[in-house]
Inverse folding.
């Protein structure tokens, strides 16, 4: 039987900030939830794929070379491949990331992603 997934329940199961929890796979895309706070990652680029951030709870910014985009609960943003960006999380935020399998690595997650 095909099972539903509740994003809030899954993200609330995470007991350590910055730990990615896979909640699904869509074609060759990973769906991961995570909690983050007081963290600004280094600027980075995904050369081969777009990336989507969906804000489940809280607020955070995505910084680009030409400014910030603020996301609140219920907002999402798609970052086109080749776009230099970095998440800026000042307070606790819970979000869903959707990206091509193999996109996440220790270098673009501040060393926190483990497969």
């Amino acid at each position: 039987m095909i099972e539903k997934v509740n994003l809030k329940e899954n993200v609330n199961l995470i007991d350590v900030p910055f730990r990615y929890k896979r909640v699904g796979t869509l074609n060759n895309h990973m769906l991961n939830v995570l909690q983050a706070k007081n963290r600004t990652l280094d600027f980075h680029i995904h050369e081969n794929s777009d990336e989507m951030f969906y804000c489940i709870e809280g607020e955070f910014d995505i910084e680009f070379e030409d400014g910030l985009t603020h996301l609140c609960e219920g907002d999402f943003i798609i970052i086109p491949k080749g776009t230099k960006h970095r998440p800026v999380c000042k307070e606790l935020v819970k979000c869903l990331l959707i990206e091509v399998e193999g996109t996440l690595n220790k270098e673009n997650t501040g060393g926190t992603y483990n497969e």
